[in-house]
Amino acid sequence: MDIKPIKTDADYRSALKEIESLMMAKADSPEGEKLDVLATLVEAYEAKHYPIDMPDPIEAIKFEMEQQGLSIKDLEPMIGRSNRVYEVLSHKRNLSLNMIRNLNQGLGIPAEVLIQTSREVHASVIG
């Protein structure tokens, strides 16, 4: 298969089949490079045609708090003093990198979810 843009579902399925056949290729071989390029093309196609709607980071924190029966006090080691926790949960303060790391490890929330701008904060900035 020649490498070409993925424009249709047929192109997509064909690229996936080709990727499957190249999975054991060595990274520095021509097959490995072809695999890398095809994977990049497939990722771009999937991002455009099958976007994943990630949850709002603050809603994800609140959900995990509820699921695990956690209180504001339980989040203090991950976020800071209780007033800081309240500020984060009320969308008045953005998550810092350290908070994201701590919440990822402490609550198991994926970093990809936590690094997003909260929809409420984003809406107030745009609107």
Automatic annotation (TrEMBL):
GO molecular function: core promoter sequence-specific DNA binding
SUPFAM superfamilies: lambda repressor-like DNA-binding domains (SSF47413)
Signal peptide region: none
GO BP annotations, alphabetical order: regulation of DNA-templated transcription
Gene3D superfamilies linked to this entry: lambda repressor-like DNA-binding domains (1.10.260.40)
Protein name (Swiss-Prot/TrEMBL): HTH-type transcriptional regulator / antitoxin HigA
Top-rank taxon: Bacteria
